[in-house]
Amino acid sequence: xxxxxxxxxxxxxxxxxxxxxxxxxxxxxAANVIxxxxxFALALLTTSRITVLRWPAMxxxxxxxxxxxxxxxxxxxxxxxxxxxxxxxxxxxxxxxLGLNLTAFNSExxxxxxxxxxKEHLDAGxxxxxxxxxxxxxxxxxxALRNSVPVLLTNGIGIFQQSALVAIVGVADLxxxxxxxxTATYRPIETFTVVALIYLTISYPVxxxxxxxxxxxxxx
Length: 220
Prior knowledge:
9 helices, transmembrane helix, MetI-like, Amino acid ABC transporter membrane protein 1, PAAT family, transport
C-alpha cells in the first residue's frame, strides 16, 4: 500500500513538540552560560605556566573533545548517581553534561584568542601597574571574548543540536517528544521532518549571523 503523507497528524499535535522545544532551549541556554563562563576559566588554566594547573585542565579538555557526547551524557546519567550518590533531575543532569562538553570546546576558542592578544598590550598593563587579575579582566578578557564570539556562537549552535542526544536517557526534549509523537501517530516521516525543520528554523539564522560577524571582523 502506498504511503500517504498526512502532515496534519503532526500539526494537530504540536503541543508536545512545543513543550519539548522549551526543554531543548532550557538545556541550550543553560549549557551555553556554563560553557561561556567556565570555558574562559579553563582556557586560563590551560595556558598557565604552572604545571599542576595546566595538565589537569588539558586532560579535561582532551577527554571531552575526544570522546563522543553521547557517551558523556550516558555516563553522567548512570555513573554519577552510582559513584557519588547524588540524584539530580534529568534536565539538570543534561545541563551539566552538555555544559561541561561545551566548556571544553569553548576553552579552545578562548585559548586561541588569548594567545592572539598582542604582548604589547600586556606589557602596557604591567607598565600601568595593573595586577594580574586586572590585566586578565581589563585586557585579556575583552579581547579574547570579542575575537572568539563567532566560534562561541558556532559551538552554541552545535550544543543546541547535540542536545537531542539527551532523548536517549529519557529527557523530554524536542527529539524525545518527536519520537513519542511518531510512535503514537505512526507518522515518522511527517513528525521527524517537522522536528528537523524546527531545529533548522532556530539554527539557520544564528549561523547566518555568525557568517556576517566573521565577514565584519575580517574587514575590521
